[in-house]
Amino acid sequence: MKAISDLQNAATAGASLGLAANRDQLCVLTCGSVDDGKSTLIGRLLLDASLVFEDHVAALTRDSRTHGTVAGDIDPALLVDGLEAEREQGITIDVAYRYFGTPRRRFIVADTPGHKDYTRNMVTGASNSDLAILLVDAGKGLLEQTRRHAYLCSLLGIRQFVLAVNKMDLVGFDERRFNEIAEAFAQFADRFSGCHVVAIPTSALHGDNIVRRSVQMPWYRGLPLLEYLESVAVDHASGTAALRLPVQYVNRPNASFRGYAGTVASGALRQGMEIVIPRTGVRSRIARIVTMDGELREAAAAAAVTVVLDDAIDVSRGDIISSPETPPQRADAFAAHVIWMSETPLLPGRSYWLKAGAQTTGATVTELKYRVDIETFDHLAAKEMHLNEIAFVNLATAEPIVFDPYDENRDTGGFILIDRHSNATVAAGLIRFGLRRAANTYFQSFEVTKTARARLNAQKPALLWFTGLSGAGKSTIADQLEKKLHALGKHTFVLDGDNVRHGLNRDLGFTEADRVENIRRVAEVAKLFVEAGLITLVSFISPFRAEREMARELVAPGEFIEVFVNTPLETCEQRDPKGLYKKARRGELQNFTGLDSPYEPPENPELALNARTESADDLADRIIDFMQQRGLLS
Fold first, then answer.
1. What is the DSSP annotation of 163-178?
2. Rounded to an integer, what distance in angstroms lies between the CA atom of residue 601 and that of residue 542?
3. How far apart, in whole angstroms, are the C-alpha atoms of residue 36 and residue 141?
4. Most exposed: 25, 119, 164, 536, by fewest CB within 10 Å?
5. What are the angstrom distances between the C-alpha of 100 and each of 108, 164, 230, 355?
6. If residue 396 lies in a helix (H) or strand (E), which one and from where to where?
7. Cβ within 8 Å of residue 431, ≥6 positions away
8. 10 Å Cβ neighbour count for 493?
């Protein structure tokens, strides 16, 4: 019982130390498993602390008759659950923010969903919070989602936890049950570095230990929840950290004014102070700090400002204005924790958009090092990530980004991954460190360029990417095309799917992850052939749009020609030149494209060919005509 006693004594001690503190702001997160009473707890706190206007109370009383879950009484949860779907289902779906203040402190409370399907919303709320109130149903104890939320909070930099053991009225206000849950969580939280936990027994529905001490639980000697929140000491490190001002917008209202607008993420700005732009390494000094309310001599963290520099140096959206003494890192490869938020799995090798602050660039997970088991914290081998999973990965970006490790600066160490086609946010990431090998490799320039090689060959380099189902006729058309190009004296090379799998890609199977890596490798090889000045023909099923788009972006604009050999599945299966469809139908081949593995047809190919009605020779001539119109064969 010593751990519980220590937690309660810490709460009392923290309160006495906090009484003289300035009235600052605390960002609080409520989290935990579904139906543990998060919304009810926040609603009860607002009601009992008289922080709700009378007309809101009247509206709440009316709403409770329609949507409430408490017979004949006010349902406090409805103060927070504002969406109609939330009221109908009795669960929180979106993050609900509530702003209020007491004489001691101002609060922003993020009430987040407990349902596993909405873990991504919980991560959003946690990313900006100082303290987490983790609710546990006293009858159910610690659940998988309780552990997941606690781990995510720790991962996202939250170090202060309140374990609210809720619904104590349903277990007869039993002290032993409270101690069992608090002890179990204390052992679990020991694995989190630097975390501080205070356990409070509550009944949010009836207000026990929310604003006032509960007469039902005289054995609890600590503070009620609100008193503890008013007094807990939280380290706001952003005000003392190194200067970081991400540039959101270059402000040029006229030719005589050039300012760089953004919100100070950490540190402080002063007129006359020296700064550096990490992307270029160029230094300058701050001439003016402009705001909507006039000019300032200084600006602290969280201030929205426009900075004018002494010199007209190169500063763009996405740059970070930093202190030269402690600049951020800059790299195009780093290790990070990733929280996957999409029903479509993460596949190493697939290209996503990475957005870190105002910086946006292409990014690829180059290695999925391990997935985290929430129950045991074991590191598990994995080839892909699924919804709500957490993993440690290596990433590579198309161009270097400026960052700090997340443990040093949450604003400049976090990022999101975005699906290139749907623009949906698919992951949240936390940068741990840059990879040293990224700093040890450089692009070596050579005097003989792609243009020079192409001129020697009397042609323009191009990448013709043939895609379509197995048996569509891709390789047959590519073969005919190469013969015609060869007759014209053009320098070509064909990369064929089956041929490449006998060598470069012989270690890959046919899972989605292997298919992504298969195309990534051949796209990089094709890029090298284009750099050599060749007309390169690639004949691969390449079933996914994301990888075909990745291949397009590897070469210069106008050099990539997507050729969709649009042969229907029925025709391909009738042809079945290699007998693969028959094997797949018999169950001898797994993950066969078009049958049990998807094919995503091109949406806007440069050429769409109907190989069912036209011969390969005629289709090759069509491609020759297209290339001549593009000026590729002059």
1. EEEE-GGGGTT-HHHH
2. 10
3. 10
4. 25
5. 7, 20, 12, 32
6. strand 390-403
7. 334, 335, 336, 356, 403, 404, 405, 406, 413, 414, 415
8. 15
Look up tokens 């987490």; give the residue.
Answer: 132
What is the residue type of 183?
Answer: E
Give dist(CA 521, CA 551) in Å, integer: 10
- 516: tokens are 């992504």
DSSP reduced 3-state for 563 = strand
Other beta carbons less than 10 A from residue 71's beta carbon = 7
What is the pLDDT averaged over residues 327-348? 93
| Domains along the sequence of the chain with CATH | 2-234 (3.40.50.300), 242-322 (2.40.30.10), 329-439 (2.40.30.10), 450-629 (3.40.50.300)
Per-residue pLDDT of 339-349, as tens digits, reads 999 999 999 99
Q: What is the dihedral of CA 403, 405, 408, 411, to 10 degrees?
A: 50
Pairing status of strand 351-356 against strand 282-291: unpaired
pLDDT digits (tens, 9 = 90+) for 429-471: 999 999 876 556 666 778 888 889 888 888 899 999 999 999 9
What is the Cα Rg of the chain in Å? 30
CB-CB contact of 251 with 261 (8 Å): yes
The residues that bridge with 538 in the sheet, in sequence order, are 465, 495
What would the DSSP string read from start to end of 306-352?
EEEESS-----TT-EEE-SSSPPEEEEEEEEEEEE--SSPB-TT-EE
- The set of catalytic residues is 542
Instruction: State the Cα–Cα distance between residues 10 and 373, nearest whole angstrom.
Output: 31
Q: Are 164 and 182 in contact (CB under 8 A)?
A: no
Tell me how far apart the alpha carbons of residues 385 and 396 are, in angstroms, rounded to a whole number. 17
Query: Which tokens hold the place of 32?
Result: 């935990």
Whose tokens are 């006229």? That residue is: 254
Question: Per-residue pLDDT tens for 366-417?
Answer: 999 999 988 788 999 998 999 889 999 999 999 999 999 999 999 899 999 9
What is the end-to-end Cα distance of the chain in Å, rounded? 85
What percentage of the chain reaches a pLDDT higher than 70? 87
**SS3 for 287?**
strand
